[in-house]
Amino acid sequence: MNILHLKYAVEIAKSGSISKASEALLIAQPNLSRAVKDLEADLGITIFERSARGMVLTPDGEEFIGYAGKILSQIDEVEKMYREGHSAKRRFSISVPRASYISEAFARFSAEIGEEPVELFYRETDSMRAIKNIFSSDYKLGIIRYAEGDDRYFKELFEEKGLSYELVAEFRYVLLMRKDSPLAGKREVSLEDLEGYIEVAHGDPFVVSMPLSAVKNDESSENSERRIIVFERASQFDILSENRETFMWTSSVPKKTLERYGLVQRDCLENKKKYKDVLIYRNDYKLSVLDKSFITELCRARREYI
Question: Residue 184 carries which DSSP code?
Answer without folding.
Answer: G
